[in-house]
Structures are given as structure tokens and as C-alpha cells.
TrEMBL record:
InterPro entries: DUF305_CopM-like, Ferritin-like
Annotated DUF305 domain residues: 82-226
Leader sequence residues: 1-26
PANTHER family the record matches: SLL0788 PROTEIN (PTHR36933:SF1)
Keywords: Plasmid, Signal
Cited PROSITE patterns: PROKAR_LIPOPROTEIN
Protein's name according to its UniProt entry: DUF305 domain-containing protein
Protein species of origin: Fibrisoma limi BUZ 3
Amino acid sequence: MKQMFLVNKTLAVLSLAATLALTSCSKIDSTDVAPGEETEIDFSARKSSDDPNDQAFDREMTRIFREMQRMVNDMPMTGDPDMDFAMMMSMHHQLGIDVGNAELRYGKHPEGKELAEESNRGNAESRERLQSYLRQHPAPERIDPNVYQQFMREMRTAMQTMNRSFRRVPNTPDVDIDFARKLLEHHEGAIDMANIQLKYGNDRAPLDEGKIIIISQGAEIIELAEFVNEHGIPNTTEPLSDDE
């Protein structure tokens, strides 16, 4: 018997319109959170099945997680939230594409592969729009240093939270389920980053892109959760402890 997957995070998607309206009216201060150290985990060292595809998928997830950690450690600091967001989200999209490509290469379920293709298209299109913005704005437009530091703290915290959620997804022998749950967490991170951009950004193009990301990836989160609920999570899971 398989477990059901309930994601209360997806309820946030139902209030996207309210979120966008609020962020367009005011910039809300948030509590400072000191950056924490991320512990590296080797997904391929978890209890993979004997299936070579499952083992290869887990190795690819390990690589992607390490890249996510490097992304936090190497965050750009130009003094311009719009430029930083465009650069960070471009990298984030590429890692999302890598997750999708792993599903296309190692997954088995046609619907899982379809979700991967849909996600890859959206990530690639958004990344190209952000890259176009960066090409047209090569020099940063710096804001007040104190406000910028708050932006960076919030962005770093959002990315660290995403990384923790990504690595804590239990490893199962089902590549398609693992793909859906990991991509869901990756999308949640993108939405968090986009909401921070809406609070601190100034340029129209990255602000619009943030809204697109919130809506499009929010819709994909619902599709991913529905896929997992429809097919169920294998009982042979091995959750990660906070110490790992």
C-alpha cells in the first residue's frame, strides 16, 4: 500500500492574486535570520533500489544539490536587487531544467516525463527573458545599502530553506515520485525568491517575471502534488534526519 502526499504549501497558490496585490502596494519588513550552514548529503548513498536508473537519478540529485549549495555561497552582490534576482533566478532555472532532464532520462511514467517537459519549457523561457534583461542592463543601479543588505538576507534565507527542503525529501525506489517531490520543493524556492523580488525590485521586466514565476510555478506545484497523490509514495522510504 502506498502513502498519500499532502502538500499544504499548495494552498498558498490559491492566494496568489492577493499576494501580488499586497506586494505592489507596500514593501514589508521581515525578521532577520542569520545564515546557517548547510550539511551536504549524498543522495546516491541513501538506500537506492537495484534499478540502475534509480541509482543514476540519485547521483544526479546529489550533483544538483551541491550546485544549489554553491549557488547560496556564491550569490552575486551587485547592490542592485533586480540584477541579482535575474542572475540568481537564471541559475535556479537551469538547476530546475537539470532536475527535469534527470526525469526524462531515468523516469518511467509518461505523465512524469510530461511534467518534466512542461517545467523545462517554462524554465527555459523565463531564463531567456531574464538573460535578455541582463544584456540590456549591464551596469547595476545600486539602492540604499541597508535595504540591499536586507534583500540579500531574505534571499539567502529563502535559498537555504529550499536547499533543506530539497535534501529532506525521502529517497524512494520510484524515480518519478522522487522527481515530482524534489521539483515541487525547487519550485517553492523559486516562488519565495520571486516574492522577495516583488518587495525590493524596481525595474519592470524582473518585477513582471517575478509575477509570472509565482503564477506559473504555483500551478506546476499543484500538478506535481496531484501526480504524487494519484500514484502514491512507496512505503520503502528513508527520510533524512536533521543531523545528516
